[in-house]
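Fold this sequence, please.
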Amino acid sequence: MSERPAGFTAVMAQRAPIDPDSLDYFPTPPWAARAGGEIVRRLDPLAQTCWEPAAGGGHMAWGLSDYFAEVSISDIHDHGGAMSPRFLLGDFLDPTFAPAIRPDWIITNPPFVKGEAFVRQAWRRARRGVAMLLRLQFLEGAARYRLFHELPLHACAPFAERVPMVKGRWDPTASSATAYAWFIWLKPGVDGYGSGPGLSFIAPGTKARLTKADDAARFGVVEKDPRQSELVAERPG
């Protein structure tokens, strides 16, 4: 890129090399990203821009690009997301990482153990709303109770069908026992703000409806017999 955002050089100079194996990198199936994009567009038809700050190889950003005029992406490590001209290298949670991005929405699948920190940081930086793809288990715990009290959740949309995620790669034929949901927060002034939390299931058949023929080819995925599936280990945390 020809222009570096404010704070870009400082972050690069201060951070030690990152071991990719230490990152909680589970690429999001593009169809699951599109399911979140649909929800956001229904809640906020005026939304135009979004930032995906844990972009990995760009799987979620690819799905979100169907719903936003502009999708900016960043990550603490370059997993291949630099294929996009809008890729920025930096730690979303680092206060010195200050790219010149003020999107309508911040949407991502964050590392699960840092989910709360991502929500709070996204709330500070987004103009209209925050959407996080998280394990349904994120609803549990005293810390999450405090989070939802301080930042009231507008909607929780669990997937009726599983969203398999494999560490370090995307496998369209994988299976999983882990339940995921989209967690949505709206900013004051956006239509629907203050209406209270809602529960809305993402219907069975969404995977087939929102999977595109060129998804696998875009990310170099070799198509396998769908009968050959693997069980994905659950994320720690």
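The chain has one domain: 24-232. The longest helix spans residues 30-43.
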